[in-house]
Amino acid sequence: MTEQQFLDLIDQHQRIIYKICRLYRDTAEDREDLFQEIVYQLWKATPSFRKESKMSSWIYRIAINTAIVAFRKKRPAIELAASMPDIAEETKNEEIEWRKELLFAALKKLDETERALIALYLEELPYKEISEVMGISETNVGVRLSRIRDKIQKIIINN
Amino acid sequence: MELHHLKNAWNDFDISEKKKSEIQSMLKGSKELKRSRKQLLFEIIAWCTFLLLYYTAFDGHRKPVIANIVLIAGTSLTIFFHIQGYFLSKRFVYGSTLKESLINYFYKLRLYTLLSIGFRMLFISGILYYFSYNISFDVKKSLSILIIALVFFFQMLFLYRLWIARLRQLKNTVSGFK
Predict the structure, then answer these.
(1) Among A28, A64, B101, B128, which residue has the least CB neighbours within 10 Å?
(2) How far is residue A131's CA from residue A122's CA, in Å, rounded to a whole number?
(3) For residues A106 and B3, what is the distance between their CA atoms, to the nearest angstrom?
């Protein structure tokens, strides 16, 4: 892959990298650092890219791997908002924003492996692809996702 | 909130898109990596200068051969492990699945930590042995050596705690795959 092809690829898929940064880091500064680190790791990993695997799966795998392993500065943990806003009084946009905030706050309560699984699930990757990225069986993917979905529901309800 | 709401929230994600020129500038490494590279270069120059000058500056000919060997070996291994550490912070992917890669990285990091701490102890012992050889100790000098040894010890302890915390975190993540 040439440098230009790689830049085109990242340009097309930068949304994936943003989502992983948002999922694994709490502050804008840390997310920016992680974004740079992921791009660099992807660039270094291009020779090992196998054409039979899907490009988006490959990006997810390297991005999540980097997010888990990369050095992170110690910062206070983010807590879920103490109360829910009164939806009836909100505009639709505000409701969507609120849902996003609630989603990410709930996802951050999961451990790092669970976050990886749910990210791939929310991205609507088939179980087979999720199992290939994660390195666990398809059955295991199904069982774990079911538990994680329950866990998320509980986190949201309890809040 | 239903699951389709979660999916919608996940997919409806606003980003401030980066230009290709910005992405291109990231191919040389992250800020953290660039900082490590500079630090590594500075340390290599400093340690190599020390190795070149110590023999004449600190009376190498008056010390026993073993003290010289321990000092040279300890310093060389310190340089070697700094380089190893840099390469470990440069590459994070060591497998074709997430599980395989994280397990391999964990073992590499654990080996590096053990060897790094072991050789650092050798280096500190070498430095203390070399500089305290042929010195007739009075209370003041003994106290100085003790203070230096304590400073080295606490520095090592701090380093050890940092590495152990990182390894523990990674181990927890790896065990999440089992």
Answers:
(1) A28
(2) 14
(3) 13
pLDDT in tens, B51-94: 999 889 888 888 889 989 988 998 898 888 889 889 988 899 99
Chain A residues whose CB is inside 8 A of the B98 CB are 61, 64-65, 116, 133-135
What is the Cα–Cα distance from A151 to A21, expressed in whole angstroms? 22
Q: Which two tokens stand for residue B159?
A: 């380093």
Which pLDDT belongs to residue B34?
87
Residues B128 and B16: their CA atoms lie apart, in Å, by: 55
Report CA A71 to chain centroid distance, whole Å: 17
Residue type, A55: M
- Is 0.90 exceeded by the ipTM? no
What is d(CA B92, CA B105) in angstroms, rounded to the nearest whole number?
A: 7
Burial class (CB in 10 A: 0-12, 13-18, 19+), A34: buried
The answer, for A62 touching chain B at a CB cutoff of 8 Å, is yes
